[in-house]
Design goal:
This protein is of the alpha+beta class. The chain is built from three helices and five strands; from the N terminus they run ββββαααβ.
């Protein structure tokens, strides 16, 4: 699955932490460092598997828990309309 940021979002990374604004709902959300890195990696070209590999490498975490956490975060982003997915 390839992820892309929704055009109905605006975001900034400040001191390593992302803040995302949903323009439609006017809800602001702050992300922790790992969530911020996942957000940065969502570019419309990378797959979830590629994003997980980067998280495993950069944060020195095991692949299984990294995959579970990224999957849960992606489900949340999709449910909130902050990202779109293509197979």
């Amino acid at each position: 699955m390839i992820l892309a940021k929704s055009p109905a979002t605006a975001s900034r990374v400040i001191e390593g932490e992302a803040v995302i604004l949903s323009i439609d709902t006017k809800v602001l959300r702050g992300l922790n460092p790992v969530g911020s890195r996942v957000w940065e990696l969502i570019d419309g070209r990378r797959s979830v598997e590629e994003i997980v590999a980067v998280i495993v490498r950069e944060f020195a975490v095991a692949p299984g828990p990294a995959r579970s956490d990224v999957d849960a975060f992606v489900r949340e982003l999709l449910a909130r309309g902050l990202v779109t997915a293509t197979p």
